[in-house]
């Protein structure tokens, strides 16, 4: 039963079309602190794109990678800039390829995963959940090497290819619908519910 | 396209049925957008679609967003758009297909409107309803008695 009484925000979350993904993308720029007493030392500026839930974690991951890859510690370094990177076209659907490195219980492995979504942030958030489910790896065990929108001819996962193009059409054969609000949920019903709405 | 034989059979059998496809008009059946019409702009995967529901009335409009198919009830109405069509193209296509007109003419919308009208009745409306029912019952019973007498 659809009725006006049950509309608008009864089920909790505000719905304005804005998706707040768990992971956001940050561009972090940092360098070794230049030091007068040790003479001029090479203070190359490094820039990284980091996926993290917030700026604090982003900065932390930045230093994790800096000390691993560039011999710069947080104690000796400084962050020059941290900006959030927003999705250029959040209302369009694309296929995102994620190249990554993750730790299993017995070693490190490379992976390539593909997700169809409207933004990189959403695809990466999905990836973390997916990889936690399938490989039991956590946020700290996963390193994202590269993310990119993948053009159709370069797509590698067959299950994503099913939804491309303008001729995608499929029915919903067995629909188990839920009541529009929990108030209409019934513990006992007289008849089995209708599940075929294809006509 | 990589389909399993079973899904290919389902799709072959569903010619002329309600399908999840670009341009399909749907009704939101759950959440804050309950009762609003949207059009499928693109299919993300088997569970989610990108939808948009432009409407002159801001209370009935739905912003472009991803919606799970679980929240959508498919209608028999379709409009002709390419995947990813933007709002102006979509509005034109909806006008060309007369989406709103076809929807309002159908029994689904009429049934919803009846429920809406009944739910929004005030006490005086309910009184008028009661009087109308009594008047009708009186007329019917009078005619019945005449027929029974014959």
Quick summary:
The complex is a heterodimer of chains A (199) and B (150). Chain A contains 3 helices and 7 strands. Chain A has 199 residues and is of the alpha+beta class.
Series of secondary-structure elements of chain A, N-terminal to C-terminal: EEHEEEHEHE
Secondary structure class of chain B reads alpha+beta
- The count of DSSP E runs of length 2 or more, i.e. the number of strands of chain B, is 6
Main sheet characteristics of chain A? 3 strands, antiparallel
| Spatial order of the strands forming the largest sheet of chain A | 2-1-3
Q: What shape does the CA trace of chain A take?
A: elongated
Helix content range of chain B: 40-55%
Order of helices and strands of chain B: HEEEEEEHHHH
Q: Give the oligomeric state.
A: heterodimer
Spatial strand order of the main sheet of chain B? 5-4-3-2-6
**Strand composition percent of chain A:** 25-35%
What spatial form of chain B do the alpha-carbon principal axes imply?
elongated
- Just give the CATH class of the domain at 94-162 in chain A: Alpha Beta
Detail the poorly predicted runs of chain A.
1-14
In this structure, how is the largest beta sheet of chain B organized? 5 strands, antiparallel
Low-confidence stretches of chain B: none
Throw out a few tags for this protein.
heterodimer; A: 199 residues; alpha+beta; Ubiquitin-like (UB roll); three-stranded antiparallel beta sheet; 3 helices; 18% helix; disordered N terminus; B: 150 residues; SH3 type barrels; 2 domains; five-stranded antiparallel beta sheet; 5 helices; 6 strands; 45% helix; 23% strand; Translation_prot_SH3-like_sf (chain B); structural constituent of ribosome (chain B); RNA binding (chain B); Rib_uL2_dom2 (chain B); ribosomal protein (chain B)
């Amino acid at each position: 039963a659809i009725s006006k009484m049950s509309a608008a925000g009864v089920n909790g979350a505000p719905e304005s079309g804005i998706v707040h993904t768990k992971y956001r993308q940050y561009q972090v720029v940092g360098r070794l602190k230049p030091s007068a007493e040790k003479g001029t030392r090479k203070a190359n500026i490094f820039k990284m794109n980091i996926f993290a839930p917030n700026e604090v974690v982003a900065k932390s991951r930045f230093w994790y990678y800096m000390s691993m890859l560039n011999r710069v510690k947080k104690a000796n370094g400084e962050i020059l800039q941290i900006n959030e990177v927003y999705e250029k076209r959040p209302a369009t659907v694309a296929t995102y390829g994620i190249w990554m490195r993750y730790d299993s219980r017995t070693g490190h492995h490379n992976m390539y995963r593909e997700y169809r979504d409207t933004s990189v942030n959403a695809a990466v958030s999905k990836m973390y959940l997916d990889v936690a489910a399938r490989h039991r790896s956590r946020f700290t065990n996963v390193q994202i090497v590269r993310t990119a929108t993948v053009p159709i001819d370069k797509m590698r996962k067959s299950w994503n290819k099913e939804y491309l193009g303008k001729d995608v059409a499929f029915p919903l054969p067995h629909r188990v619908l839920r009541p529009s609000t929990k108030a209409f949920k019934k513990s006992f019903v007289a008849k089995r519910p209708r599940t075929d709405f294809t006509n | 396209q990589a389909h399993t034989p079973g899904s290919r059979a389902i799709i072959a059998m569903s010619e002329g049925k309600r399908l999840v496809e670009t341009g399909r008009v749907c009704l939101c059946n759950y959440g804050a957008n309950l009762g609003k019409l949207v059009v499928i702009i693109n299919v993300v995967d088997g569970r989610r679609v990108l939808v948009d529901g432009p409407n002159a009335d801001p209370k009935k409009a739905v912003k472009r967003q991803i919606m799970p198919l679980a929240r959508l009830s498919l209608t028999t109405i379709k409009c002709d758009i390419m995947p990813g069509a933007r709002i102006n193209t979509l509005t034109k296509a909806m006008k060309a297909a007369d989406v709103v007109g076809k929807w309002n003419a159908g029994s689904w919308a009429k049934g919803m409107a009846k429920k809406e009208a009944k739910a929004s009745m005030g006490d005086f409306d309910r009184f008028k309803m009661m009087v109308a029912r009594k008047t009708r019952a009186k007329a019917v019973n009078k005619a019945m008695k005449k027929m029974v007498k014959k």
